[in-house]
Amino acid sequence: MTVVTLGVHIVDVLARPVESIPAGQDTHLLEQIRITAAGTAAATAVDLAKLGVPVASAGAVGDDELGDFLIMIMGRHGVDVRGVVRKPGEQTAASILPIRPDGGRPSFHVPGANLGFSPADLDPGLLTGAKVIHLGGMDVTWGLHDPAFFEVLRSAREGGTVITMDLLSNMPDLMPGARAFLPHVDYFLPNEEQALAITGASDAEEAAAKLLADGPSGVLVTLGGAGSLVATASGLTRVPVQEAEVVDTTGCGDAYCAGFIAGLLGGRDVVAAARLGTAVAARVAGGLGSDAGLDGLTIERIDGAQGAEGI
After folding, report:
1. What region holds the Carbohydrate kinase PfkB domain (predicted)?
2. How much of the chain, in percent, has pLDDT values that exceed 90?
3. DSSP-derived secondary structure for 122-158
4. Which position has the higher pLDDT, 192 or 310?
5. First-to-last CA distance in the chain?
6. What's this model's pTM, rounded to 2 decimal places?
7. C-alpha dihedral over 170, 174, 177, 180, to 10 degrees?
8. Longest dimension (CA), the chain
9. 112-155: per-residue pLDDT in tens?
10. At the topology level of CATH, where does 3-18+32-309 sit?
11. Residue 116 class from Cβ within 10 Å (0-12 exposed, 13-18 middle, 19+ buried)?
């Protein structure tokens, strides 16, 4: 595989628009309900597959019906799922997301089998020769906080593999563990809240500088409606958000990561790859779920639509 996404796998059940939770046994009629493959590894894998990038995913799900669904839907989208292990007696991670009319996404979440994924579950052959390994959610995959896994990453990088990393949560207590991965990562893609929590910085620029000092070649801090901040040894670059009618912000970070990785594989520099990530995220924001708006999309079509902006 060209890319291996490794980490968090979740089933999302999404409904929109939800203005309030009905009282008692009342019913509210909605416009749309979807169930999707989600999580910082699974969603990124699906987005990459939809962009035409060969991708495999590695992680853990339960031996339940949700696990059956997640493996089926990822495979249907073209993701190689042989690295997704089944954990007997565990529940597959799942979220219920009532999407507000403005695209906001409160959630109800069960972490499930993700917490038990460990180096012993990894097939080393899956990683051999990958051009990119994307670490999705190292803040919550506690079983991978292991020197044996750091050695896997070190060996992969020595072989020329690029390591990217995104986080799942905004929980400050989980940030120190995630920071331990940074010496083994080439590009780190947190959101602003995560970057501030992991560093204790007062703004995104300060946070990016501190994170760069931990070892990555680049830090890309996503800023929601303000776009993203790209930090490398050459300096800081602001990448503006692309205009989109926001339906649901679920998975926009995963889409940004997928577009960024696809851009790197296509030979773009870091800032140009970030612009591609921004374009993919804008497509996803216009629909419901972490893979919305990507069916039939190609990088060439994005370039054609956005050529005037230099994507």
Report:
1. 14-290
2. 83
3. --HHHHTT-SEEEEE-TTT-GGG-SHHHHHHHHHHHH
4. 192
5. 26
6. 0.94
7. 20
8. 59
9. 999 999 999 999 889 988 999 999 999 999 999 999 999 999 99
10. UDP-N-acetylmuramoyl-L-alanine:D-glutamate ligase (3.40.1190)
11. middle
